[in-house]
Write a structure and sequence with these properties.
single chain, mainly alpha, three-stranded antiparallel sheet, extended
C-alpha cells in the first residue's frame, strides 16, 4: 500500500462534495507525518498528477480548492469533469476562450483566489469553468435514481447471509 492510499480511501468514502481536513487529521489518516514541505510550500498541495500525494485526491475526483497553510487546513472539493487523458491515449481536442472587458476588481479577486489555492490564474479559471459546465445537481440526482431503480427490491440482511454461510459448514 502506498503512503497516501489511506487518504484516497478516506476521501472516496466521504459523501459530501467538500472535505476540510487539518494536517494533523491527514497525518492520522495516512499514519505518518506529512513532509515539512507540506507545511511551507503551496505547490506541495497542487493538483498535479505527477505528484504521488496529489494522485490520492485526484483519483477521487477532488481537487485542493482552499489551502490555509497558516491554519494547517486544506479543503478537498469534488470536481465534476473528465480527467485529462493519459499521455499514451489520444488527446482530446482543446479550445481557447478569450474574455474581454472584465473589471480590474474581478481579475484581482480571481488572482487572489488562485494564489490561495496554489494555482495560476489560468488554472483557477479552468477549474471555475469546468465546475460551471459540469452536470446540474438535478441531473446527478436523476442518474442516482436511475441506478437505484436497477436493484431488485430490498437487499437481504447480511446477518442472515452470514448465519446461513456459517450453518452450511
Amino acid at each position: 500500500m502506498a503512503k497516501y492510499d489511506p487518504l484516497e480511501h478516506y476521501l472516496s468514502a466521504h459523501a459530501e462534495s467538500g472535505c476540510m481536513l487539518t494536517f494533523a487529521e491527514i497525518e492520522g489518516i495516512i499514519g505518518a507525518p506529512l513532509p515539512p514541505s507540506a507545511r511551507t510550500h503551496r505547490r506541495w498541495w497542487g493538483n498535479d498528477r505527477t505528484h504521488v500525494q496529489a494522485r490520492s485526491w485526484l483519483a477521487t475526483s477532488r481537487e485542493v480548492t482552499d489551502l490555509r497553510l497558516e491554519e494547517e487546513r486544506v479543503l478537498f472539493e469534488r470536481v465534476y469533469y473528465s480527467p485529462p487523458p493519459a499521455d499514451d491515449s489520444p488527446k482530446r481536442p482543446r479550445s481557447q476562450v478569450i474574455v474581454r472587458n472584465l473589471d480590474t476588481e474581478i481579475v484581482a479577486a480571481l488572482k487572489q483566489k488562485a494564489r490561495r489555492n496554489g494555482h495560476s490564474l489560468e488554472q483557477e479559471l479552468r477549474v471555475i469553468l469546468m465546475r460551471a459546465a459540469g452536470p446540474e445537481r438535478s441531473t446527478l440526482i436523476a442518474e442516482a435514481d436511475r441506478i437505484r431503480a436497477m436493484t431488485a427490491g430490498p437487499l437481504e440482511d447480511s446477518v442472515a447471509l452470514l448465519r446461513r454461510d456459517r450453518d452450511s459448514r
